[in-house]
């Protein structure tokens, strides 16, 4: 299993072209949150904004609009139960992240199905948390025209793959991913998370137990969306998003026993600047 080197951050995080605007840095739709899980939508969308996404729209329940608008004034909000607004947002965004805090209601199930059906080949769908649980438990076929990134923790991967945690080794994971969707990328979250994509298996060696706190995965999903929106879909971009999350957490862990996801999010622009200056180039 190949280790992901810190150089990937210099490689992927380029300087911004001076002649550019928000439209160059990705339009992200985050379908997240429900009555009891508003925080997941806030963390995921603030991570997308802080990692540089050009425009972020959060599709959620209207009761969470005020909280989201107050915490993240950069993001827009729509009601995911308004079919016209949702379909328009699916069409207008380049990256769609679905699942953090969504819950497993019949409304949530309908949202997962609509996204898989409507997303097109030029879009990326990031599937996390409740959306993964729904796909597993409701046996929703993982078929879509879009590129797919799944980000399960080991419990979610157990539901999806039917592999018990002790059976989740490299060969079994490759086999099960192939059965689910051979074109999808799998980010298996754990201590030293792994990426499976088109026969390649990569692993980070960063990350610490201070990250074992609610909302840390929702944060990764937002970073993943922000990175794919700006730097394009590739295994390198996926690797850089996964690594920067744990890299910042390791820096913070020197002085913080537990890493608050909102603190990690606050640090993203500063660390991204340092890697982009080391890179010194911008994408033309
Ligand atoms: N502030 C918020 O609004 C939060 C909302 N959350 C949302 O809550 C919903 C349920 O997600 P949860 O993940 O909490 O619950 P789940 O029930 O989906 O997963 C937890 C289960 O997986 C098992 N497991 C095995 N390996 C694991 C690993 N490496 N990491 C985590 N669990 C592992 C646990 O033992 C447990 O049985 C999701 O929609 C999620 O996004 C959580 O992210 C927590 C914070
Ligand atoms: N002990 C640990 N070592 C390294 N990384 C960890 C550890 N515990 C948690 N993490 C990381 O924190 C994140 C937790 O994700 P997840 O369980 O989905 O959180 P949530 O759903 O609460 O947001 C993952 O990226 C995981 O790799
Ligand atoms: Mg999670």
Outline the structure in words.
This protein has 284 residues and is an alpha/beta fold. The protein has a single domain (2-14, 24-276), classed as 3-Layer(aba) Sandwich (UDP-N-acetylmuramoyl-L-alanine:D-glutamate ligase). Helices cover 46% and strands 14% of the residues. It contains 11 helices and 10 strands. The chain has a 10-stranded mixed beta sheet, sandwiched between helices. Strand 9 and strand 10 (200-203) form a beta hairpin. The longest helix has 19 residues, at 235-253. The chain is globular. The model has no long low-confidence stretch (mean pLDDT 96).
- Strands, count: 10
How far is the first residue's CA from the last residue's CA?
A: 33 Å
Tally of distinct domains: 1
Rg, rounded, reads 17 Å
Low-confidence stretches: none
The main sheet orders its strands as 1-10-9-8-7-6-5-2-3-4
CATH top-level class: Alpha Beta
The CATH topology annotation reads as UDP-N-acetylmuramoyl-L-alanine:D-glutamate ligase
List the helices and strands and how they pair.
Layout: E1 2-3, H1 7-12, E2 27-31, H2 38-50, E3 55-60, H3 65-71, E4 76-79, H4 83-92, E5 95-98, H5 106-118, E6 124-127, H6 129-137, E7 147-150, H7 154-161, H8 170-180, E8 185-188, E9 194-197, E10 200-203, H9 216-231, H10 235-253, H11 261-279
